[in-house]
Amino acid sequence: MILNELEQKVNLSIHQTDFNTILDALCTTLLNTFDQSLNLGEAEIELHPESHVSQMVEEFQLDTLDLKLIALAYAWEYDPALLKSLADAFSNRDLRQLYGGTLDKDTANFYPTLKTFLALFYSKDEYQNALLKYTSIEYPLTKYGILSYSDEGNIGESNLNHRVQLASNYVSYLLGGKRPQLDHEYDFPARLLTSKVPFDKIVHDKETREGLEDLQKYMKVRPILKNNPSLKKKLNNTHIIIFSGSPGTGKSLTATSLGEAYHLPTYTLDLSRVLSRYVGDFEKAMEKVFSRLDGRDCILFIDEADSIFTKRQEEVKDTKDKYANQEMSYLLQRLERFDGVVILATNVQDIRTHLDKAMLRRISTIVEFPFPKQQQRLELWQNAIPEGFTFGEGVLDKLSANFQLSGANISNIISGVIIEALSINTTELTYEMIEPIMKKEYYKRDSRFMACPDNSPAAALMEQRLGRTAVHSGRRM
């Protein structure tokens, strides 16, 4: 126990020592700039290969100046005394114009901007090229949300006059904390999904399992493709798959569990953060997602994909059609360049009639997720109950044979039933306990509560599986 604690302290010391090294390098530059009589020379940045600073340098191919930009962003927020020389220089109008930034009237702390950094480290001849580098959408420190240019407290729209800000969770990481996820920013338009069910435990019918085989093969060989440039040139970077099926049939669960099985975290697009009434906002939000996940070992999962992947209008009748066509064209072009796995999920029956032809050409596979039949429902009910609980005699057969319920429905019902069982101190789940909770689930989806085996008429099956409004809406089973 003592050895483990000592090892943790040593590891923490490695990260903090290396971070202090880049802070020292920044301080040396500031001292040389504002007190030339010192003539200290530039500090050497030597990093421990196991430190988080060193690992980030290797991953993003950072140079010394990138590290000093990180140090500058850290200093104003966490150790403002390091920037005292810049604060003192602020009273000089010429220096203020040269270095930019702002001075807090209450604390006298200096807030540096991108202009401050460029003036400190680049000559006039280098200035414009440096500005292009640090404001490029491909600059890794801003692309992955490690740094941002915040306009808080500054005047003007240019990034040049915005504060350089270091993400708080990357502060923790650089000092020895946990590695942040790709969706670490609160406003990032995608979020990480996790699954409680291993992929091999998910209930699929034979056709769905066979449909998933191609995707599994691709995920298995993806590391080989990434490390073989000659192979990669001959194959598409983007692997797009459609999961098509009724709500609750396991599309999201399958995408997440499959990703975890192949060590590819699954990020789901948050449609509420990308759909906008303002022109250009959609493309801007989607670009943030694509650029962040591009080339990373992960899956982009887009639920209700039919809401954004629609056919382009051949006859543009109004401005709405015009901008919808522009958005679709952007998606097609961006997917063409995207390096990664994209899974599109839809509830639409025969998605082929809904998608643009150019989009269909980019699809690798369409995997159908049919509503579970009796055998699948039997397995779903069996898998849903926690260890230590059992169904009463004949209950499992009665439930699976007579009630049209999806995996999501069954999971919801079992959650309520287990609470009921615990409240009355029993481990046996009887039909009398389950029925009232089933009725609530039927009410939510607007279905009549009734027995409906798989050989019932199609209209009855549709009403039972999707609700009464589905009978005339054209929705799928």
Automatic annotation (TrEMBL):
Task: Say yes or no: keyword Nucleotide-binding present.
Answer: yes
- What are the AAA+ ATPase domain coordinates in residue numbering? 237-373
Asked if ATP-binding is a keyword of the record, the answer is yes
Q: Which InterPro entries match?
A: 26S_Proteasome_ATPase (IPR050221), AAA+_ATPase (IPR003593), ATPase_AAA_core (IPR003959), P-loop_NTPase (IPR027417), WHD (IPR054472)
The record's annotation in SMART domains points to:
AAA
Q: Name one GO molecular function term.
A: ATP binding
Q: Which UniProt keywords apply?
A: ATP-binding, Nucleotide-binding
| Signal peptide per UniProt | none
Any Pfam family the entry gives: AAA
Q: Which family does it belong to?
A: Belongs to the AAA ATPase family.
For this entry, the protein name equals ATP-binding protein
